Amino acid sequence: MNLVYADEKGNVFDHPDYIALGRSGDMIVELMEDELIPLPRGATLVGLPHTRPVFMDPDTGEMKMLSGNYQAVGALLPQGYTRLALPSYVKTDKNEKFPLFGYTSVVWKDGGFYVAAEQSDDPYKWDPLNCDRGDVRKGVELLTAKYPENRLYKHLSHCALGYECLTSSNTFLQRWEGGVPVSYSCNAGCFGCISEQPDDSGFVAPQTRMNFKPTVDEIVEVMLEHLKTPESIISFGQGCEGEPSTQAKIIVEAMKIVRSRTNQGYININTNAGLTDFMRAIVDAGLDLMRVSTISAIDEHYNAYYKPRAYTLANVEKSLKYATDKGVYTSINYLIFPGVTDREEEIEAMIGFAKRTGLKLIQMRNLNIDPESYLQLIPPAKGEIYGMKQMLEIFREELPDVVIGSYTHLPPVAARK
Q1: Taking every annotated instance into account, which residue ranges of this chain make up the domain Radical SAM core (predicted)?
Q2: For a disulfide at 80, which of 123, 178, 195, 197, Cβ 3.0-4.6 Å?
Q3: Which residues make beta-bridge pairs with 75?
Q4: Is 0.85 topped by the overall pTM?
Q5: Cα 120–chain centre separation
Q6: Is the pLDDT of residue 232 over 70?
Q7: Which candidate, 271, 275, 285, places its Cα nearest to that of 242?
């Protein structure tokens, strides 16, 4: 497997004499053949700014830094793929931070690009190539003309056309999982927030957070337009908003109105689930699916990343268990990072968390973060680091009734409330 690297102009090369490596946390590691898959459709190769690639010299077995004005290359994977290793690199300027994306080790072998990853779900619905941009524009024109006063559609049109967000695009294509953002505020200060960053963070948020509070009527219009088929999903909690449960009052009211008019489709919420009383009200209003974002089931690690305001990880667990007990199909949006998520103590804690809450699904999501900044933030490892591939095998063995995937699934028909 050959080293992949890029020049300053973005031209990508492979080096036939140097062996590619990966990275787990802050450790450079060798890549195994069974960790590599061909570069998936929809993946993107990117240069890592202010870096030098690290490789293995096949003659000596030494790890070396590539000389010359070159930078390391990483792959950005589409949904449905779980990364197993980070790119191998050394920063030339430790003060520089990577943009907030999830970078995966990439190599050249057998005449093509390969990545250190595992397919963990069917990527079809979340493959950007299956989202026709012309159809999205037509959908935007249709729904913004039909609801000219609805600010949500105007906001979502920017997400769909400007950011090419697939969830908001689905809202205008009226298919699969569509989004209905509701909140401009949040009860957490996530270190890697993609919609709002402090001025002194050093990160640039890749999205702009919504800046208004929608009315119940605006929410109902979007929900009713989307919930027209048995398999449609409408979701509160998008990347362009804060925590949706902070707007529990209008969510509950909108849900009750919608469910008085149609039983079609599923209502989902993507949430941190910290506001337990608000979450109970949303569940009781007829919620079908709940996806809770978490990075760890260990308090110290969770608190360092999420910086929760007036809630704890215990509140998150209570919310999940309440929802599961009420028949909601519960899942976690598990933000994973090689060298951290696969630590012995992290795995044990998450298995216990899943069993106590009755989780039905773990959605593996590659954490979008600058690696050095993240590793400085969290507590150091206390036990063995198993590797991401073995971690996934352990989850499948220890949690046989929990689906391991990458995005929202519909519950089994027999489990429908």
Answers
A1: 181-347
A2: 123
A3: 45, 104
A4: yes
A5: 13
A6: yes
A7: 271
Pairwise CA distance, residues 277 & 293, whole Å: 18
**Spatial separation of the C-alpha atoms in residues 219 and 295, rounded to whole Å:** 29
Q: Which among 247, 225, 224 is positioned nearest to 236, based on CA atoms?
A: 247
8 A C-beta contact, residue 351 and residue 395: yes
**The two structure tokens encoding residue 378:** 């969290």
The whole-angstrom distance between residue 297's C-alpha and the CA centroid of its chain comes to 17
CA of residue 67 relative to chain centroid, distance: 35
Closest CA to 37 of 67, 99, 68, 82: 82
Q: Give the 3-state secondary structure of the chain.
A: CEEEEEECCCCEEEEEEEEECEEECCEEECCCHHHEEECCCCCEEEECCCEEEEEECCCCCCEEECCCCEEEEEEECCCCEEECCEECEEECCCCCCCCCCCCEEEEEECCEEEEEEEECCCCHHHCHHHCCHHHHHHHHHHHHHHCCCCHHHHHHHHHHHCCCCHHHHHHHHCCCEEECCCCCCCCECCCCCCCCCCCCCCCCCCCCCCCCCCCHHHHHHHHHHHCCCCCCEEEECCCCCCCHHHHHHHHHHHHHHHHHHCCCCEEEEEECCCCHHHHHHHHHCCCCEEEEEECCCCHHHHHHHHCECCCCHHHHHHHHHHHHHCCCEEEEEEEECCCCCCEHHHHHHHHHHHHHHCCCEEEEEECCCCHHHHHHHCCCCCCCECCHHHHHHHHHHHCCCCEEECCCCCCCHHHCC
Cα distance between residue 156 and residue 174, in whole Å: 13
Contact 167, 180 (CB under 8 A): no
417: number of Cβ within 10 Å? 11
Give the integer Cα–Cα distance in Å for 238 and 207: 11
Q: Are strands 329-336 and 289-294 parallel, antiparallel or unpaired?
A: parallel
Q: Are 213 and 247 in contact (CB under 8 A)?
A: yes
Amino acid at 158: H
Between CA 7 and CA 10 the distance in angstroms is 5
pLDDT tens digits for range 102-140: 999 999 999 999 999 999 999 888 888 888 999 999 999
Q: Which residues pair with 44 in a beta bridge?
A: 76
- Other C-beta atoms within 10 Å of 284: how many? 13
- Report the distance separating Cα 27 and Cα 87, nearest Å: 11
Q: How far apart are CA 284 and CA 282, in angstroms?
A: 5
pLDDT value at residue 414: 44
As a whole-number percent, the residues of the chain with pLDDT over 90 amount to 81
